[in-house]
Design brief:
single chain, HTH-type_TetR-like_transc_reg, 66% helix, Arc Repressor Mutant, subunit A, Tetracycline Repressor, domain 2, HTH_TetR, 2 domains, 0% strand, 9 helices, mainly alpha
Length: 196
């Protein structure tokens, strides 16, 4: 009997582990190839069966929502951790932009999902994360008083449009993201991802 490749089947006890492996695999695949790769490629990359993929994520939208949930939890924790820091806005928005760069394939899924994605709830949650840091930065004189949450959401849409279409001669998504922020006058520096 041929040896089974991939991770051993641990049954229901491995559900959380399988889910985490699927999200990590999807992040890698979509970062390399975009969101139009066959859905079952994610299961292969994660080393789990297709049944496990579909139990956790019946479709691409469910998978994108899981990724965004992880991203939101990270942003919310960062905002809490640095709430008293005048640079909180810069830290949170820089991380948000990094997430946009790294999760571009998932944003593409949402952009093509139309009404199947709870966009209003997502925008509301994003506004909630950014409001405190924005207010603090404005009180400290680090951001112009006229900047609003709606402006920030527009900047994010501009960022997505730029990243998804690119420009001739670009030097990569991080450079493009930084150019967008510089052009709109937002004093946020986007770091390159950590190596590895």
């Amino acid at each position: 009997m041929p040896e089974r490749k991939g991770r051993p089947n641990l049954g229901p006890a491995a559900a959380d582990q399988n889910r985490s492996a699927l999200v990590s695999a999807a992040r890698r695949i979509y970062a390399r190839h975009g969101h139009e790769v066959p859905f079952n490629t994610i299961a292969k990359e994660a080393g789990v069966g297709q049944g496990s993929l579909y139990r956790h994520f019946p479709n691409r939208i469910a998978l994108a929502m899981a990724v965004f949930e992880e991203n939101f939890l990270e942003l919310e924790e960062l905002a809490r951790e640095h709430a008293a820091d005048p640079r909180c806005f810069e830290l949170v928005f820089a991380r948000l932009v990094r997430q946009c760069v790294d999760s571009l394939g998932f944003i593409g899924i949402i952009a093509s999902a139309g009404r199947d994605f709870p966009l209003d709830a997502t925008i509301g949650r994003l506004a909630a994360v950014l409001t405190g840091p924005l207010d603090r930065a404005q009180r400290e004189g680090l951001l112009r008083d006229t900047l609003t949450i709606d402006d920030l959401l527009l900047i994010l849409r501009m960022l997505y449009g730029t990243l998804s279409h690119g420009v001739p001669g670009d030097a990569g998504p991080t450079v493009l993201a930084q150019r967008v922020l510089d052009l709109v006058g937002l004093p946020v520096r986007v770091a390159d991802p950590p190596p590895g």
